[in-house]
Amino acid sequence: EDKVVQSPLSLVVHEGDTVTLNCSYEVTNFRSLLWYKQEKKAPTFLFMLTSSGIEKKSGRLSSILDKKELSSILNITATQTGDSAIYLCAVERTGNQFYFGTGTSLTVIP
Amino acid sequence: SQTIHQWPATLVQPVGSPLSLECTVEGTSNPNLYWYRQAAGRGLQLLFYSVGIGQISSEVPQNLSASRPQDRQFILSSKKLLLSDSGFYLCAWSEQGFEAFFGQGTRLTVV
User: Fold this and answer.
1) Which residue ranges in chain B fall short of pLDDT 50?
2) What is the structure's pLDDT at B41?
3) How do B106-110 and B87-94 pair as beta strands?
4) What pairing do the DSSP bridges indicate for beta strands B3-7 and B19-26?
5) Which end of chain B is more exposed for a tag (fewer CB within 10 A), N or C?
6) Is there a contact between B44 and A100 if contact means CB atoms under 8 Å apart?
7) Given an 8 Å threshold on Cβ–Cβ distance, is A102 in contact with B43?
8) A8-48: per-residue pLDDT in tens?
């Protein structure tokens, strides 16, 4: 059975801290891994990772995929209150099917 | 550019009543379409996906059904709602090889 697991489930940090969110997966016919940020309604796309070991970066956010370990991490440096959200990891299977993890709820305290 | 519309934004329905949620996509042809359900701020559960008109795959057995009567229209339905159908429903679209884009969601409360 396909599985996407995120950890931790929730996290509370202070502004300026660095956080690392984890995603592990067991999926047949893996194609890519994606990260999304969900603040209120629609999740918004952050990264798509297809190759192992290549970091993708956008501002204070970065992510990397480890296909050997079947996992990915999302790093956020110098966190701000605007980073408070649910961060969702999804794995795409061949056939363009997306399976999501449980999400990590991040709260950044001023 | 592509846009996705999903409505209504909120819905309160009594147990046993029917349901119809609609999603339409503009600016693309033959998209892959998805219905997800999210419970209490947690992860998204894939309910249905469609690769073309009339082609629907169901991921989990449930009280819901989906239809795709037109290329860019995806409908989520139920004949008789259950309390357990309450949740946040998200429609999404994608093109092969690219990320999924989400609608604004429908918060359904079954009372």
Assistant:
1) none
2) 61
3) antiparallel
4) antiparallel
5) N
6) yes
7) yes
8) 999 999 999 999 999 999 998 999 999 999 998 899 999 99
